[in-house]
Amino acid sequence: MKPVLYSIKSKIVIFAVIATLLPTAGLGLLSFKQNEALIIDSVTRELRVLADNVNRQLNLWMDENTLTIRALSTSNPVIEGLTILKKQTDNTHENTAKQTQSVMSGYLTAVRDKLDDVLELTVFDSTRKIVASSASTPEVLESPERWTHASLTRGSIAITPHWNDRYDTAAFSVIYPVLSYDSQLIGAIAATLDLGIFRNKLMETRKFSSGEITLLDQNSRVLLSSASGIDHLAVPNPHYLESMQILEESITHDGLSYPKAIGLLYASENVPVTILVEQDQSAIQASWMKLRNRFLEFVAILIVIVTLVALYMGHSIVTPLKQLISAVRGIVEGNLDIYLPVKRKDEVGQLTTIFNQMTDALRNKHTEIMAVNQAMQQQNQLLQKLSITDGLTSLYNRAKLNTILIEQLARFKRNDRTFCLLMIDVDHFKTINDKLGHITGDKILITVASALLKSIRTIDYAARYGGDEFMAILTETNSSAAIKTAERIRSEVSAACSALEEHPIQITLSIGITQSHHDDTTPGDLIARADVALYEAKKRGRNRVYCVDVAHTDP
């Protein structure tokens, strides 16, 4: 008897029968007086889910708009406009200030026209004075006197949600600080949001529920509702609202949406509004009675069907699937020598056959994949190296040089750490190349590259710019230090080329140097100055170093 009870098939049958009987027994033990409690409990859960969905939608809508306002607070027109106005402290710049305010107002109007949820935008200066607005009479007249840490990151609600008669909609205002490029508080931007647009999201949420949704302001006045016929003049019963707030549960009351409703209050997290969700009580009770009567009839039929299905599943599916699961687990653990005997001709037998074929294919492919993977890794490493280095000198190529310059410029702007760019040219290389041949010319270039690498630090970069031109990027280096490094490069190259076994020759270099400037925006800015410096070095007789950022006197 025990082996039968402990078999998988028996457990499935017992579980299926018990799982079917438990709801029936539970419903049979409930009395008629408990129906109302069951209805309220079920509806409360549904109302909580509905209110929670509305709250999430409201928070998401609020987050989307706050992100937009935060982006506006960091936009160039707003920051630059407030910066300009802050500098205009006397009457001589009055026209400039008015023009700046006009430009900012036009910008705010243009932005407002593109944002459906925004009714108006207003900008304040650091003295909390309005300097520009998309509206002739702004809703927000003054920015906060002090900003807390939370206000600097999340903003603050300047005007709580209310019914706005001017725009004939529910609205509220959010205000954000405006920081200068050096993170100084220079003003604020306020946006009045159209909460009435959120009714569309209420209607979308309403499609998946039988309840109605109403948003109330802090004085329990209606802001908007998913139900038709309810406007901002409607007033819910204050007694029922107080009861719902105290009990924090749903109660039956004279509803806004239905004559008799079950309602629940939910306080929103980000927006100071109260969410009132309601369901029609009469419809809930009628559907529950009908469902209960049909449920008892359905359970008897369901028990028979579930028992038969459980017996079939336990015999035909569970056992062979257990074998397959065990075999698959072995493959996952790395054992590819698993083989399952095929004892059946049905779909499970076919699945077993395919499983055995799969293990054979896995064994055959495993070795191939490992070999291909190793070869691919080697090729990828080689390709990566070739993509950033020069084939002759093994220095960085021109593309990699541009990438390094972009990174150094960004670092310079963040940390203000100066770096220098050296443009190096082999003097009279074309003549040397024509006289001694390209092979010797290539050896000279390789020797120059080797000497260049020996003359710079490990934190510096060297690249072949093209032909006989090289470049070196000296990180965290000023002009005077760069000149010393350049002289060391000249000496090292001269000594190395003089020591060539086949064609010892005196090689000289012309080197142009430039230091990073705050107005540099692209690598081309530095390269252009370095090229000017190189040209000046050649102009002054070659075999010398010239820096555009240092005053020179000819020797």
TrEMBL record:
<dbReference type="InterPro" id="IPR050469">
    <property type="entry name" value="Diguanylate_Cyclase"/>
</dbReference>
<keyword id="KW-1003">Cell membrane</keyword>
<dbReference type="InterPro" id="IPR043128">
    <property type="entry name" value="Rev_trsase/Diguanyl_cyclase"/>
</dbReference>
<feature type="transmembrane region" description="Helical">
    <location>
        <begin position="295"/>
        <end position="314"/>
    </location>
</feature>
<dbReference type="Pfam" id="PF00672">
    <property type="entry name" value="HAMP"/>
</dbReference>
<keyword id="KW-0472">Membrane</keyword>
<keyword id="KW-1133">Transmembrane helix</keyword>
<dbReference type="InterPro" id="IPR033479">
    <property type="entry name" value="dCache_1"/>
</dbReference>
<dbReference type="Pfam" id="PF00990">
    <property type="entry name" value="GGDEF"/>
</dbReference>
<feature type="domain" description="HAMP">
    <location>
        <begin position="315"/>
        <end position="367"/>
    </location>
</feature>
<dbReference type="Pfam" id="PF02743">
    <property type="entry name" value="dCache_1"/>
</dbReference>
<dbReference type="GO" id="GO:0005886">
    <property type="term" value="C:plasma membrane"/>
</dbReference>
<dbReference type="InterPro" id="IPR000160">
    <property type="entry name" value="GGDEF_dom"/>
</dbReference>
<feature type="domain" description="GGDEF">
    <location>
        <begin position="417"/>
        <end position="550"/>
    </location>
</feature>
<dbReference type="InterPro" id="IPR003660">
    <property type="entry name" value="HAMP_dom"/>
</dbReference>
<dbReference type="GO" id="GO:0052621">
    <property type="term" value="F:diguanylate cyclase activity"/>
</dbReference>
<keyword id="KW-0812">Transmembrane</keyword>
<dbReference type="GO" id="GO:0007165">
    <property type="term" value="P:signal transduction"/>
</dbReference>
<feature type="transmembrane region" description="Helical">
    <location>
        <begin position="12"/>
        <end position="32"/>
    </location>
</feature>
<dbReference type="InterPro" id="IPR029787">
    <property type="entry name" value="Nucleotide_cyclase"/>
</dbReference>
<protein>
    <recommendedName>
        <fullName>diguanylate cyclase</fullName>
        <ecNumber>2.7.7.65</ecNumber>
    </recommendedName>
</protein>
